[in-house]
Amino acid sequence: MRSLFTATILAVNVGSLSAPAIANTLNELPVSSPSSKLNIIAAQPKAILQNSGSNQFARRSLNLAKQIPSDAIGFLILDIDRTSWQVLGSSSVSPVLALDKLLSFITLSSGFSITKDVQPWLGNELAISLWGNGGDSDLSFVALAPIADGQKFELFLQKLKKLNLPKPTEIQYQNVKILEWQFEEEKFGDRKPVLSQSLNSRKSLLSHLQDQASDLKNADLKNKDEHPPNSGDNEPIIPGFFDFRLQRLAIAQLPSGVAVIATDRQAIQKMVDLAAVNSEQALPSLAENQLFLRSLNHPLWDRSLLAGYGDFKGLGQIAEILAADLPETSELPGLSRSEYLQGLQYTLGQYSSFDLFTWLDPKGVRSQSNSYFAEVRPPVPKDNGTRDRLLSYLPSNIYGAITSRNFSRQWQWFVEESKKQPSYRILVEGLRMLSSSIADPNLDLDIEKDIIALMDGEYAVTIFPSDRSPFKEFGSDIAAGMLIRTSKPDAVNKTLGKVTKYFNNFLVPKNIAQVKKRQIGTTLLTSLEFPDDREVGKTQSAFAYGWRDPQTLILTIGYQTVADFIPTPKPALADSEMFRDAIADMPKPNFGYFYLNANAIAKQIALFSIAYFSELDAPPNSEPPQSETSSPDQSTKKVLPELLQKTIDRLGGAVFVYSETSDRFQADFFLGLNP
Questions:
Q1: Which residues form the signal peptide (predicted)?
Q2: In the chain, fewer beta carbons within 10 Å around the N or the C end?
Q3: What confidence tier does 382 reach under pLDDT thresholds 50, 70, 90?
Q4: Distance between CA atoms of 213 and 183, rounded to whole angstroms?
């Protein structure tokens, strides 16, 4: 838990995998120091790589990593070999074709086609990388891929020269030809677009990007002319950020037979220097970086279709640049520049690098990300408490659920961590400010002491469809509930007694609400109910709570929805095939599950979108057609288009899981895909 929030902030962590095999491998390595572990892994890359899968993705990745500087901030590689994607049972899956269709869909290109102009010379992998650059820009971004057909690559270059772009500059650097296009000129600190023609509806991708940069600049100039600065106006100051407009583009073929496209020629020159065999001062490549080799030698790299590596210190460089736009002081706790930098330095001191793996299996898409600690930590204390009991108390048909345990301990960790990581203070102090703002001397309730401190067992929050939903009259079946296990039921009853007494003393006498006793099965409930405007004397339950068993408190929106939990639902979420598939290979122990029924959620979003846009298209003051034999609900029920319905039917369950070992914080993800 101690790393859950920190690692999520600086690294995108999704994934899934059962970790027994990985854990066993780690346990066989010395853990006396992080350096000893890294040296052992880095010293044996050949032995590990020889056990790779048939596609040798790790070895192919290593070949491209040799073209990248050792201090790269990040490296991401995609396997575009169609045979690697056949695990889905279809030979028609092509990532290159999918990318080409995506670009065509957003109308970025007509004269330039990835499938026609790039794929003929492209090898079986495509990588991107980011690193600090000593040239004109702060960062260099490069894309590289092996060249399968040199002649077709030359045809590609010739076509680029014929596009509606500025004339490229041809540079020879150590016998390597580099073509560079200059899209913007820098003059006296101002950037001036080279091209001035307006953007047509369909142009080449590069031309579109260039013209888009020109349009943005012209819009800025026009806005300045129409709204001259006035020293007397108190205009809000909007902080600036990176200028992401494409200024230059450079392309070359490296001596290794790798094609590279970069945001400046200096990046390519640095890659050429890496390949210089006779160089007196040979530059180290990413392939020699021990942190990268640790990720490359992970068993999942060779299974992946998408794999990546990142350096936390490199990310810190970007974050420090962004900090220049933060205010010196802030009314919100933890958001001033000094506090941001303090938290950044603390985080960078905790972690060294991270990696990402994404692969397919017969049941769906899996992904895993690891954020490695800078130093090996003591083993996480073993928790022998019962886990996942509440999964058997939740209905199987839900939209989503978050389950975990001991929120009291998690909150205490968060409070202590906020003393070192100021950005967490906004949540800690925010809760305390909220508690103070809603404080009522007649209630005498402290959120931390009277609620959070009592949540020392499992807990689950769920959103689910229900025929008993209190929102049924608004056309929605959505309902929400929470289950809390506690070892202190007497203290919980004391807190509930305070709440009930407050309702009875201050809401009921004013005829604002009523507190009623309800019963579902053998469970007695306290229900807060408000007058129902549709019928005199009738009330509508807004909130209810009661004890499912002596240690499990249940809270729901509307008391009727408790019937979805009591008696024990059949089937329960723990028995759902969709849920079991989602968590089958997840690491255990873990911090709990964040589960989503992707199928049900996608269907609801699609139905809502159809209803929304149908309403927009309807003539003013029109009413939906209704037959004499159909009810209003039947006449307005929307049906999804067949193709969309088939796509949604392929979706299963999705789950995020977080866990921690002595050397890493791990995040896993799974999305089920039906045949």
A1: 1-23
A2: C
A3: confident
A4: 9
The angle formed by the CA atoms of residues 358, 363 and 369, to the nearest 5 degrees, is 25
Q: Is residue 673 part of a domain?
A: no
State the DSSP H helix or E strand holding residue 597, giving kind and residue range, or none if neither: strand 593-597
Of 23, 21, 5, 13, residue with least CA distance to 656: 13
Cα separation of 402 and 595, whole Å?
6
pLDDT at 145 over 90: yes
One domain, residues 345 and 433: no
Domain, as residue range, for 441: 407-452
Between residues 97 and 44, which one has the greater pLDDT?
A: 97
150 and 276 part of one domain: yes
Nearest Cα to Cα of residue 260 among 277, 279, 274, 244: 274
Alpha carbons 663 and 506: distance in angstroms, whole number? 54
CA–CA dist 252, 267 (Å, integer): 11
Residues 352 and 254 in one domain: yes
Say if residue 414 is in the same domain as residue 288: no
What does the angle CA 147 – CA 148 – CA 150 come to, to the nearest 5 degrees? 70
pLDDT in tens, 588-609: 889 999 999 999 999 999 988 8
CB under 8 Å to 493, separation ≥6 — which residues?
A: none
- Verify that 143 and 285 share a domain, yes or no: yes
Contact by Cβ (8 Å): 354, 310: yes
Q: Which comes out higher in pLDDT, residue 407 or 164? A: 407
Mean pLDDT of the chain: 78
Helix (H, G, I), strand (E, B) or coil at 159: helix
Q: What is the pLDDT of residue 199?
A: 31
Backbone angles phi, psi at 674, to 5 degrees: -85, 155
The answer as to whether 280 is a domain residue is: yes
Distance (Å, whole) CA 206 – CA 210: 6
Q: Could you read off the pLDDT of 214-265 as tens digits, one per residue?
A: 554 455 555 545 555 444 444 443 344 444 567 889 999 999 999 999 998 9
pLDDT at site 262: 94
579 close to 591: Cβ distance less than 8 angstroms: no
> Are residues 173 and 291 both part of a single domain?
yes
> Does residue 464 form part of some domain?
no
Cβ neighbors of 520 (< 8 A, separation 6 or more) are 546, 559, 560, 562, 563, 566
Q: Which two tokens stand for residue 395?
A: 């209905």
Answer whether 549's CB lies under 8 Å from 568's CB. Answer: no
Domain assignment present for residue 145? The answer is yes
Contact between 157 and 174 (Cβ < 8 Å): no
Q: Check residues 478 and 107 and name the one with the higher pLDDT.
A: 478
**Residue that finishes a domain, picked among 423, 452, 481:** 452
Q: Mean per-residue pLDDT for 40-66?
A: 62
In tens, the pLDDT along 95-106 reads 777 777 766 665
Residues 286-336: tens digit of each pLDDT: 999 999 999 999 999 999 999 999 999 888 877 777 777 778 887 777 778
pLDDT at 167 over 70: yes
Domain count, the chain: 2
Token pair of 445, please?
A: 């309730």
Residue with tokens 């369909």: 202
Asked if 143 and 274 sit in the same domain, the reply is yes
Three-state secondary-structure class, residue 326:
coil
CA atoms in the 13 A half-sphere facing the CB of 590 = 25
3-state helix, strand, coil in the chain (%, to 5): 40, 25, 40
Q: Report how far residue 364's alpha carbon sits from residue 651's, in angstroms, rounded to the nearest whole number.
A: 9
Instruction: Render the burial of 192-207: b for 16+ CB within 10 Å, e for the rest.
Output: ebeeeeeeeeebbbbb
Domain boundary among 426, 452, 478: 452
CB 369 within 8 A of CB 356: yes
List, in sequence order, every beta strand (DSSP E) within 318-399: 351-361, 364-373
